[in-house]
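Notes continue from the previous slide.

Worked example: a multi-chain complex. Inputs as given:
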Amino acid sequence: MTRTGRITGLIGATALLAGTAFADPVDDTLVINEEIEMTTRAAAPAHLADTLDEVLSGWHFRNDDTRAMQADDFDNPGMIFVENAMTAWETVEGTEGKSCASCHGDAAESMKGVRAVYPKWNETAAEVRTLEMQVNACRTEQMGAEKWKYGGDEMVNMTALLASVSRGMPINVAIDGPAQATWEMGKEMYYTRYGQLELSCANCHEQNYGNMIRADHLSQGQINGFPTYRLKNTKLNGAHNRFKGCIRDTRAETFAEGSPEFIALELYVASRGNGLSVEGPSVRN
Amino acid sequence: MKRSILTVSLICATMSASAAEVAPTDVKFTDGAIAESLTGVAGDPIAGREVLGNRSLGNCVACHQVTDLSDVPFHGEIGPMLDGAGSRWSEAELRGIVANAKMMFPESLMPSFYRTDGYTRPGNAFTGEAADSTFGPLLTAQQVEDVVAYLATLKE
């Protein structure tokens, strides 16, 4: 019944749009640099068992050219920013005379797998930390350096570097134990219909992924590809930046990047992609 | 000269609007339908057609397909197709659905186009800032009437 409705809708759309829109996700596989095999579709994690059969990377919802850009680091504009972050990684800053490399050595070795488990409960601070928060904790506590702005260029570049060395590894954020309360808060947000348009994350990305909303092809809203290089603004964008824009577009008073609300939402949305590969920096439109 | 004419017509519009217009908070629904016109002024289907297709007005095609609006690019697939809506629904039902579809379909994804209360973190348009004293319904009462008049022309 649902399927029939969808097929009918598709035929209608095809007739109207002269074949420009094929709403279902593209059946394709992503291998980066002919080397890293990416899991872009996976069985839904247990906590989504009643909701979704399969989780899909946003990569499947983009067009041929955009998907191809991500498959080769020379074509992926996001990798330029990773190179900038590699310089920052080696740069001594702050009162302690240290760089990231002073403690962590080669990021490609020491940081492998880190992106996949964030946001993550930090026992000492007794809080759920995003990767951005952890970077700033390192800067202020270990380096004696100034914090970076949460969604600023230095920060998003550094998180792109950290993601890039985990590419191909499965997202695996913990949602139980001390992180559970934050996760529950994020889940509640995911289903809250914000703003004058009264749209929740779920309205578009759970109930309508694969469908077109005007000229936009709705994905599952997975964040395994963040930070993502968007062709729309030709720069890297962090997950909180996207959340902020999405909630703004419901004609709502949105939340700030790095706010407790977006930390919780990030944990919840990340957990919906448990099993998908870390893809950052991905390429999207 | 031009400006003064505009001002005069604006004042007239405001006066006539306030005389007969039903405020968003005073709308009476019966089984999700609104029997009476919100303005007492007949809807203009040509203006209504513009509201459906225009991104900064109703932008209805963001979610709905309408064959009659095939000159407007990119129709969405979120809501039901509107072809034949004028045969499936009465004018009162169409008015109710446009003003607040959730009165008839509680789970509907459709925004309420003539409602001003009951929102979670309402914003000031698309700025991301909180709503201020300028907060109003998505469409004016007359625009709702225009949309209803246009939808009523979409017969099977």
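Summary box: Chain B touches chain A at residues 55, 59, 61-63, 65, 67, 70, 73-78, 81, 109, 111-112, 119-131, 138 (CB under 8 Å). The mean pLDDT of chain B is 91.
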